[in-house]
Amino acid sequence: MNINRAARPRVLLTALAAGTLLLTSACNDNAAPAQDKATGTSSASAAPATTPAATPKPTGEADPALKPFYGQQIAWAGCPADPKAEQAKIDISGMQCGKLHVPLDYANPATDALDIALIKLPAAKPDQKIGSLMVNPGGPGESGIEMVEFGAKEFAGPLHDRFDVIGFDPRGTGASSPIVCYDDKQRDALDQIDEPLDPAARKTEHVKNATDHAAACQAKAGKLLPFVGTRNTARDMDVLRAATGDKKLNYLGISYGTYLGALYAEEFPKKAGRLILDGAVDPAADSLDEGTNQRIGFEKSFDRFAADCVSNHAEECPLGSDPDKAAKKAADFLDGLRDHPLTVKDGRKLGSDLAWTGTIRMLYGDEKTDWGYLRNALGWAMKRDKGDMLLAFADDYNGRDKDGHYNASQEAMGAIRCADMSRPAPTPEKAQQVVAKLQAEAPLMSKGVSVDDYTEPGCAYWPFKTPEKPHTIRAEGADPILVVGSTGDPATPYAAAESLAKGFANATLLTRVGEGHGAFGKGNTCIDKAYEEYLTEGKLPAPGTRCS
């Protein structure tokens, strides 16, 4: 077996070459069923540009054209039966569902509209209710409805007592006019292919796939594509705030949800109440640098996982006895699946890219939960030639359920990310710097990476170009914001939280010392107490607080 001619994991290479980030929910790692994770694509849509006028146009509630939307009443009712919830033995009988009517294009609100799907976990103590707590689990493309459905237990206690916890599927996702570009068989076929090792062949394939992807999405969702950017979702969230009767928005956003929360605070600073931004994205960062740092973050997490496997779980670890060589042994096995894929029970093949994707999926978790599952999966694959567990993790990441049906999260992620931040082509010098950094700091996940992978602009083949640019968000006039970062977060490295908090005019940084993506739902009592005190009392943790 030639295990040295390694492919990079498709999930990282594709996103990094496109200039996008792979951001998923932190809380869903523990709460959602297998089909609710997503991975990046190489393309996306753009938000419409606006032209400043001599007299600023009224926005939000002040815009007469938006009055019908801001004045609507949500018809809350019992939620319809959800087979996934029933299968997971989740009781949703106490929850309520509804729809929010919003403009397709906020610049022309009378032309067309769409409905945003909602769910509400009513406050357990209505007589003590403060208001609503809006939540977003990340992605972009993840379902806020499923965050509440499957993660209701994470809000137990003061948060559920005093807030109506409200989740929503952002436009273009879930049950809110989802962007669907492929059928299930097409998605299976695309996911089964390992990318070429040769840089020139890989670039040719990337251009073809990106062009085909853009055409498929344009054909099936062209009307929606220009309007799925995060700034429009932030505007939807303000309409939702008004429709629930809240004067200010209280919000918990995880991963990509921190970008949504930051844009909301920028767009509506006087309406921004108590905002927790957990697993932070830095809106001022160059997307290529951010993606590079993300891959390095996953490599470091992979190294720590492998060393922990050998040092602390020797009886079940398939990675030998040397902590310094364990990560390479795992990487060599995953790379070798390119030439010798494993056949799983349903007849599909587990190749290198899918195996790496499944591995990366479990690195979003921490050493107490997902690392154990990853140890078992690698053991079954390496010792017994059974790849079903790794493939199940890859399916989970790719949004594929056990019946072979895909959700729309992958297509939505691509569309939203490019609507938010397409980037110019890097200079040859910049591309070489990226490759050199990856080869030095993420060698196992960057074998074969070349300058050819980074010569094109991000979202080059998408039909719409966004005016959005990376920038520091100050949110002058907003209430104090709580930014949270985890020291071992591979998907949104800790430095991004530091930068986001520093950029705000009024923010406090809270640190979780530990592995995994995001802090919410990790069972850290220090974090949980800080969230409860801030959201229910407005009490911020002391500057410099670190929760071990």
Automatic annotation (TrEMBL):
<feature type="compositionally biased region" description="Low complexity">
    <location>
        <begin position="37"/>
        <end position="59"/>
    </location>
</feature>
<dbReference type="Pfam" id="PF08386">
    <property type="entry name" value="Abhydrolase_4"/>
</dbReference>
<keyword id="KW-0378">Hydrolase</keyword>
<comment type="similarity">
    <text>Belongs to the peptidase S33 family.</text>
</comment>
<feature type="region of interest" description="Disordered">
    <location>
        <begin position="32"/>
        <end position="65"/>
    </location>
</feature>
<protein>
    <submittedName>
        <fullName>Alpha/beta hydrolase</fullName>
    </submittedName>
</protein>
<dbReference type="InterPro" id="IPR013595">
    <property type="entry name" value="Pept_S33_TAP-like_C"/>
</dbReference>
<dbReference type="InterPro" id="IPR051601">
    <property type="entry name" value="Serine_prot/Carboxylest_S33"/>
</dbReference>
<keyword id="KW-0732">Signal</keyword>
<feature type="domain" description="Peptidase S33 tripeptidyl aminopeptidase-like C-terminal">
    <location>
        <begin position="458"/>
        <end position="547"/>
    </location>
</feature>
<dbReference type="GO" id="GO:0016787">
    <property type="term" value="F:hydrolase activity"/>
</dbReference>
<feature type="signal peptide">
    <location>
        <begin position="1"/>
        <end position="31"/>
    </location>
</feature>
<dbReference type="InterPro" id="IPR029058">
    <property type="entry name" value="AB_hydrolase_fold"/>
</dbReference>
